[in-house]
Design brief:
alpha/beta, 23% helix, binds acetylphosphate
């Protein structure tokens, strides 16, 4: 459903939901701080079947990037063993990958977006240069990101294979999904996974241009929902978490700005929930142990990930 009333200015919402200083003036991890040792232990206890689900998409040229501003990973071999002559007949193979850090399953670092010259926690945005980010880079999240994950299947809630581009997910949809999914709760330190079906659309159509042209996703009102519940991170099967085209022509990616810059929340994008969702529908268990540590790429704005869920 599209908002017909005028949307509140994202700066006003951002100021209201801002977490700056909450974990100290030097904090560069934001809402990941909600994942305490106790909550990690409790998340670990959710493992009971030893069933593992791979939520990452393949890092290859079949990815959803259309080349307009990001390309798919390019894999190149530097050694195959050919022409090598080591004692004992030893041979080795080596390779390279060339890719935007934002092109496949990935975390957005807290340095990813900013406005009015400031990043999360008030760090100056001019600390982002051609050398990378001085503050809030993805390597600052190296001791994460793992904890209790909760999947909310909004496509299933609406009875569709996928929501159409421009479909706004409202807080009421998140509440209704919790209710329909056996009353599963989303609380402090949880990693929320929102299934829109956008990955399924790509898998069935194979059209990168259609994948990137727009998407269903979280509306701006969901920021307060995430804030109230003290969610640690949010992931989705689309490429920007939030709805596109956006709800207002006055702001580009306002959910990014509020979640990342004001709340300090890392976003996990282009995840694949297909196998996991099927399993959750089968066993009725929508919470689980989730782990997706970023690579420690110094000063980087994001990191490729291979997120896993263990039930
Ligand atoms: C932008 O498009 C700026 O970001 P993301 O990949 O996080 O959606």
């Amino acid at each position: 459903t599209r908002q017909h009333t005028r949307l509140e200015d994202f700066r006003v919402v951002g100021e209201r939901l801002r977490n700056w200083g909450r974990w100290g003036p030097e904090d560069e991890r934001g809402t990941i701080n909600f994942i305490t040792p106790e909550r990690l232990v409790a998340a670990g206890r959710l493992i009971c079947r030893g069933a593992i689900f791979d939520l990452g998409i393949p890092f290859d040229k079949s990815g959803p990037q259309d080349g307009a501003f990001r390309s798919n990973p390019l894999h190149m071999m530097s050694e195959t063993g050919a022409g090598q002559d080591f004692p004992g007949g030893f041979k080795f193979a080596d390779d390279y990958v060339l890719m935007p850090l934002q092109c496949a399953s990935q975390w957005d670092a807290l340095a990813h977006v900013h406005y009015d010259g400031l990043l999360y926690n008030g760090f100056p945005a001019d600390g982002i240069t051609t050398k990378g980010a001085e503050h809030c880079s993805i390597d600052k999240q190296a001791k994460g990101i793992a904890g209790r994950g909760v999947l909310l299947d909004i496509a299933a809630l609406k009875g569709v294979d996928w929501l159409e581009a421009g479909t706004v997910i409202e807080p009421e949809d998140l509440d209704e999904a919790c209710e329909r999914q056996g009353g599963v709760e989303v609380g402090t330190g949880d990693i929320l996974l929102v299934r829109t079906g956008w990955r399924r659309k790509f898998l069935s159509e194979g059209d990168p241009a259609a994948f990137m042209a727009g998407e269903p996703g979280l509306g701006q009102a969901c920021c307060a929902w995430l804030h109230e519940r003290e969610v640690a991170a949010v992931g989705s099967d689309n490429w920007a978490i939030e709805v596109l085209p956006g709800e207002s022509p006055d702001a580009f990616l306002p959910v990014h700005l509020i979640l990342i810059r004001d709340m300090g929340m890392s976003l996990g994008e282009i995840l694949d929930f297909e196998e996991l969702a099927e399993d959750c529908h089968r066993d009725g268990v929508w919470d689980f142990f989730f782990a997706a540590p970023p690579l420690k790429i110094t000063h980087a704005i994001g990191s490729p990930i291979n997120p896993v869920v263990i039930k």
